[in-house]
Amino acid sequence: CAKRDGPGSLRLFDRTLLEEAERRWQIERALRLAVATSRIEVHYQPIVRLADRRVLALEALARWTDPQLGPISPAIFIPIAEESSLINQIGKAVLMQACCDAAAWDGALAGACVSVNLSPAQFRSEIATVVEQALVISGLDPSRLILEITETVLMQDSGTTLQTLNQLSEKGVGLAIDDFGAGYTSLAYLKKFPVHKIKLDRSFVSDLEDSEDSRLIVEAMIRLAHVLGLQTVAEGVETEAQLAFLERLGCDEVQGYLLGRPGPLDRILAARLRAAANDLARSPVAPPVR
Ligand code: C2E
Ligand code: MG
Ligand code: MG
Ligand code: MG
């Protein structure tokens, strides 16, 4: 460890890099084992329609807790999986679990869609076949599956990507652009691909309250989406004030901690049932007929 400035600070820098590389390698090794032993779990977060507060879909989010390393965020392990090709197995497992869960959920969630994240790397393998298999095995109606892809997938624009997305869309599968506005999607791309929804990146939502510019940008993006016949979902909604702005700006759907945090399916189901019971209790009761 460094005692002084000068050469010492270089040693400190080297050591940090080394520690980072070691940590990464440790995570990759543990992840490989977790994938091999089916220890990646799926949590769900509600996506709610603003007009009537109905849960239209649940987004499937990968979760992993290593016995030694503890819980590790997908923001950390998904990029590592993408670099080590583990992403294909993880993606397949999440998709399968999500389709099977969605095919079975009923009660307060009956008919709701499931929204599954796909990594750009998955488009370089047989993604259409994998989706087809998940639909057949689960028995899920294709119209209840939404695939979330990032702008990167559209930008890597090979003829095969377009062909694959068209094939999935023709089957009835929905397509959403995740983290929209954070990357560089040109508007032309949105028309070229069979996209159904755009999910406005959380960074726009978190700026809504303080910045008139952000409000104008969000409003313009929502208008543009509607002109192109696309639905809009706002990500990362945390406050009532943000919700009110989004409602005023004409956003269709919202997702975020305010509406419900991601959790295991049984917890989400229980929360929806409680919400339905509360609605019932609040609704006016007809007087008994005599
Ligand atoms: P994403 O697809 O944009 O998912 C939304 C992320 O925002 C989730 O983080 C969710 O927990 C978080 N979030 C939701 N509401 C709020 C809010 O109100 N405030 C804040 N601060 N955050 C909120 P999570 O679960 O940590 O996932 C991070 C990213 O990892 C995802 O971003 C997605 O890109 C990726 N990911 C997760 N699961 C999978 C998967 O199965 N496959 C692939 N390819 N990527 C995945
Ligand atoms: Mg997503
Ligand atoms: Mg997102
Ligand atoms: Mg995001």
TrEMBL record:
Coiled coil residues, start to end: none
Domain named EAL: residues: 24-276
Organism domain of life: Bacteria
Name by which UniProt lists this protein: Diguanylate cyclase/phosphodiesterase (GGDEF & EAL domains) with PAS/PAC sensor(S)
Entire protein: shown range: 427 to 716 of 723
